[in-house]
Amino acid sequence: MKQVNIHEAKTQLSKLVDLVANGEEIVIAKAGKPAARLVPLQQDQAPRMSGLLRGKIRWTDDFDDPLPDEILAAFEGRKQE
How far is CA 39 from CA 9, 46, 52, in A? Predict the structure, then answer.
């Protein structure tokens, strides 16, 4: 793990980002005391696959019909008439 001061981090940010992208961790110090750490981003484990649940999700023909009044009233926070 490499430690750099703030001034060096400001002047060599591109170089430091390249080092971090290659797996190295960088500690940025302020007045000699560690203040921040640059680490590589964690990449997603596996790309998402479209259509994975095809045929497993079903809905009725009325799924987008208006809600019954008593449920709508509860969502809107009003008393049912």
Answer: 14, 20, 33
Q: Does domain 2-38 have CATH number 3.40.1620?
A: yes
Alpha carbon distance 66, 68 (integer Å): 7
Helix, strand or coil for residue 35? strand
Q: Which residues contact 70 (CB under 8 A, 6 or more apart)?
A: 80
Give me the average pLDDT of each 10-residue run along the chain (81 residues). Answer: 94 95 94 94 80 90 90 87 63
pTM to 2 decimals? Answer: 0.52
